[in-house]
Specification:
By secondary structure, the protein is of the alpha/beta class. The protein is built from nine helices and eleven strands. It has helices spanning about 5-20, 35-45, 75-85, 100-115, 145-150, 170-180, 200-210, 225-230, 240-259; strands spanning about 25-30, 50-55, 70-75, 90-95, 95-100, 120, 125-130, 135-145, 155-165, 210-215, 220. α7 (about 200-210) packs across α8 (about 225-230). The longest helix is centred in the last third of the chain and has 20 residues, at about 240-259. The protein is globular and about 55 Å long. The termini are far apart. The structure holds ligand 48H. Ligand 48H binds near residues 52, 169, 222 and 235. Ligand 48H binds near residues 52, 60 and 235.
Length: about 260
Amino acid sequence: MDEVTISRAITESFFKEFMAAMEVDVAIAGAGPSGLIAAYHAAKEGMNTVVFERELRPGGGMPGGGMMFPRIVVQDEGREILDEFGVRTREYERGYYIADALETISTICSQAIKAGAKIFNLISIEDVMIREGDAVTGLVLNWSAVSWSKLHVDPLTVRSKVTIDATGHVGEICHIVVHKLGAKLRTQTGEVMGEKPMWAERGEKEIIENTKEVYPGLIICGMAANAVCGSPRMGAIFGGMLLSGKKAAKLAQSIVSKG
Ligand code: 48H
């Protein structure tokens, strides 16, 4: 056993994939459930897809289930998606299905990687790249450890044909676009409208409509879609996240195919 061979193997393989991720079709900010589903479908459709996740572990809010009980609930449409992934569900009451949060997120993450999506953890998006017509054309990255420790270290950049903001409750990429460019988003006010209080039925319905290209080259999905468009949160029901991620990948495909 040679320790240096182990170290070379890790370093060389990482940088090969990182270099390949610098020019992609789809760059996704956030490896929560919506971002991972978007990554799975984008990669499955043949798009060169990369996900950057700030935390050590992927999964966002899913492993925490409801109040740290690692279970999630989905409705009929969500269950169909879990069926496709081979995630086991059990009907609790008519129209309410329960799944193990850890089985769900680990399966989706594994399938996204197997479909060809590259997921880089411990990397934070701190800015966007902008070109002609003010379209978002890429993401600006740094190690999360750099931002957490407030070190003054300049970032690196990836170019993407489409960017997906799947950063959850904050909608971080949209905030950057609004604050740095003074830009108007395709929301009712043109601003990041902020998430509304819990209303599961409306939250789950509106998240699908809110999943859209909110700015040229920038799609919002998952909780970020509701936060940006001023729709309610929905608690630990996750069907909307899954459907939103799937829709985001479809929208990305239509943008990528237009060139
Ligand atoms: C890199 C980043 C950055 C950044 C954030 O919060 P998530 O799980 O998001 P969704 O939309 O896939 O799922 C939402 C769901 O988990 C949830 O919170 C629900 C259903 N809430 C309902 C309610 O009522 O509370 O994942 C977002 C991911 C996280 O892993 C972040 O670490 C990551 O994005 N992230 N990664 N650069 N700037 N910002």
